[in-house]
Specification:
The chain is of the alpha/beta class and 321 residues long. It has one domain: NAD(P)-binding Rossmann-like Domain (Rossmann fold, 3-Layer(aba) Sandwich), CATH 3.40.50.720. It contains 11 helices and 13 strands. The strands form 3 sheets. Strands 3-2-1-4-5-6-10 form a 7-stranded parallel sheet, with helices on both faces. Strands 7, 9, 11 and 13 form a 4-stranded mixed sheet that branches. Strands 8-12 form a two-stranded parallel sheet. Strand 4, helix 3 and strand 5 form a beta-alpha-beta unit.
Length: 321
Amino acid sequence: MILITGATGFLGAELAKLLVTMGNNIRCTKRTTSIIPVLLAPFKAQIEWVDADLLDIFALENALEGITQVYHCAAWVSLKAADKEPMINTNVTGTANLVNLCIERGARMVHVSSIAAIGLAKPGELTTENHHLEESAENDGYAISKLESEMEVWRGIAEGLDAVIVNPSLIIGASAGKQGSGVFFETIRKGLKFYTIGSIGFVDVEDVAKCMIAVMNSDITAERYVISAENYNYKDITTEVANGFGIKPPAILAKSWVMEVAWRVAAFVGTITGKAPAIDKTSAQTASLNRDFDNSKIKDAIGIEFKPISKTILEIVEVLK
């Protein structure tokens, strides 16, 4: 039996859909307040939903009854400064609870981390699985939570856990709608004027799910994989997206100092309104960095051929139109 945590989220829902269409009956955890995604509505008969907060060890024990494979996709994501410490505690403690139960039950785990937990390569080099974030120099609460969650998985591996860690780059896909990474596309559709000098890796959500299933059903264990299809600079991808919408591409370069001003203004507005800032310090600084990734390890391991990002962009644009 297969268990997915975080199946109400963007990646988790795509993973659940793919597993079900492959003929699997699966169990998915959710919070009592969570809404089951429309994407999974046609598969009610194949999915068993259980209410189980990752901090509720007793609920988790029940959720893992009879489970042999666990896909851990659940994580709290927030830009609010007030959420930093509780987010770190929730993500790390929840992962630790799941790791301990997987060891106890002999279940195999694929843990979804993030490129946020991977350090920076030297200028001109590609980032690989061998790069590691320096926690002491990191201020991004989400990045810290993903790094420390990874550490819990590695601790579990040292104690006998059969597990693989995946670190997806920026996950995009039509099913995101206007949420998550969909905000990026919706912002361009509304007439974004600025672009930055940085670059980053992108990957289709379906490809991430395919990679996860492939490594789960392999003999691979105690490994970490960057999951990224292509590296794009922000000018090129905003131009391609704008062209897809049939609108004028962003034409003004937002230099580093402009981004520094932007996050400070956003933080001030967020303080007044109580809402998460549109951009935080880490996002503003990252937008001017070149974060390009080497995907050769995962390609060599499972032979995946990634969907061209240009094709994914067209699919997203059609949905948002």
